[in-house]
Amino acid sequence: MVKLLKLDKCHVILFVLVTYLAILKSYNKVIVIKIDRFIPDIKNILFWTKIQGLEGEGQKYFIENKCEFINCYFTKNKSLFEDLRYFDVILFNLQDVSSNIHALPVLRSSTQKYIFVANDSSDNYPVCNEMYDNFFNWTWTYRFDSTISYRFITVYNTEYEELGSHFQWNNNMKPIDASLKSQFVTKSRAAVIFLDKCESRSKREVLLHELQMNLAKYNLAVDIFGACGPKQCKRKTMNPCFWRLRKNYYFYLAFEDSFSYDYITEIVLYGYNNNAVPVVYGGAMYDKHLPPGSYINALNTTSKALAATMNDIIEDKDKYYEFFRWRNHYVITKAPHLNACALCEMLNSPARLVQKVVYTKFRMWWNHLYKTRCGNDLNKYSIL
Questions:
Q1: Strand 72-75 relative to strand 222-225: parallel, antiparallel, unpaired?
Q2: Coil, strand or helix: which one is 109?
Q3: Residue 174 Cα distances to 58, 321, 324, 330, angstroms
Q4: Which H or E run contains 216?
Q5: Contact status, residue 56 vs residue 74, Cβ threshold 8 Å
Q6: Which of 18, 51, 228, 266 has the fewest beta carbons under 10 Å from its own?
């Protein structure tokens, strides 16, 4: 009997040991992915493909930029949860959507937000494939009617308070003082443009050529710096070019490479930041973006009339000074194209999250001329 009890105890010990080793072995098969989460309610955001201006993993962006909400988590790891439906947001890049070269998710959840992210114009990158109609919940672009809207430039008052997108410009601005006028005395050349993209959707190169010919009648010229002209800055930075602009030129030609609604880039700042009057050419309603009387719009005029206007202003210094009255009232600076703080704030708004939104006619919204722009591609994508 004693021997039998001893045998049973040995069996029990052996059973416990074998069970323990089996459990230990099974634990070794579990792969643990460590995710740094500082706040329990994390909003997980997946980059479907790379998005310029939004780099890095985790919460780093939101913490370093001191966002109001930092409980958002960036990742490019599509296998993070083994199921794409666990992501709160998936971001899709304009260039990839336009080119249609990347596979798309097969399954999605009803609460998930698919966001179209654009850092370029709809004219340069139309969307042709009909599958993108009824695809996106939100948009994040330069257009004012986007879910999340951004501007290439930011306007402040002289107390450095940001004025946002909806405010009334001051139409009774004070004249500039003698100190600012003295900064213009070295100017002797008509206009300049910094140009590396020699062919454009806007055909700005055609206007530039015509303007050159008409300015020549007044012994004036446009100097072209960069790959599209004979002049170079001779350094890797743009600073030498900016110095020459500030010292020598009356006008900077802020000609956009494409025409799109609300599309105005930071090239207009080359003029504003360097004591030159911008001559703008693009599809935006410039009176919404820029101070009144601070620029010349080249769109609804002829190159002959534009050249005459520029010559007249150069000859009459008081007219030239008028273009700088805005400096007494505003500060205009470059803005971050994609401010992810705004995205994280939106994801923390319960009212916005529960709204069932989808862009049913997305291609038309993004580019109302998409049928013309897509051409033969439209038929190709329509049969997918």
A1: unpaired
A2: coil
A3: 48, 11, 10, 12
A4: helix 204-216
A5: yes
A6: 18
The DSSP symbol for 234 reads: S
Q: Are 94 and 52 in contact (CB under 8 A)?
A: no
Contact yes or no for 318/348 (Cβ under 8 A): no
E strand or H helix at 6: helix 2-27
Three-state secondary-structure class, residue 1: coil
Check: CB of residue 276 under 8 Å from CB of residue 252. yes
DSSP codes joined into one string, 261-279:
TT---TTHHHHHTTT-EEE
Using the predicted structure, report yes or no on whether residue 78 has a pLDDT greater than 90: yes
Secondary structure (DSSP) of 354-365: H-----TTHHHH
Task: Please report the beta strands in 137-178, taking only residues with DSSP state E, as ranges in sequence order.
Answer: 138-141, 148-149, 153-157
H or E, element range at 334 = strand 330-334
10 or 81, greater pLDDT:
81
| The token pair that represents 144 in the structure block | 């004012």
Q: Give the number of residues written for the chain.
A: 384
Q: Which residues contact 343 (CB under 8 A, 6 or more apart)?
A: 45, 72, 89, 115, 140, 148
Token couple for 254: 């802020």
Q: At what angle do helices 204-216 and 303-315 cross, to 10 degrees?
A: 50
Beta-carbon contacts of 345 under 8 Å, excluding residues fewer than 6 positions away, are 67, 68, 69
Half-sphere exposure of 279 (CA within 13 A, CB side): 25
Q: Is the pTM of this model over 0.85?
A: no
How many other C-beta atoms can be found within 10 angstroms of the C-beta atom of residue 118?
28
H helix count then E strand count, the chain? 15, 13
pLDDT at position 6: 45
Q: What angle do CA 42, 44, 48 make, to 5 degrees?
A: 170
When mean pLDDT is compared across 16-20, 32-36, 371-375, the lowest value belongs to: 32-36
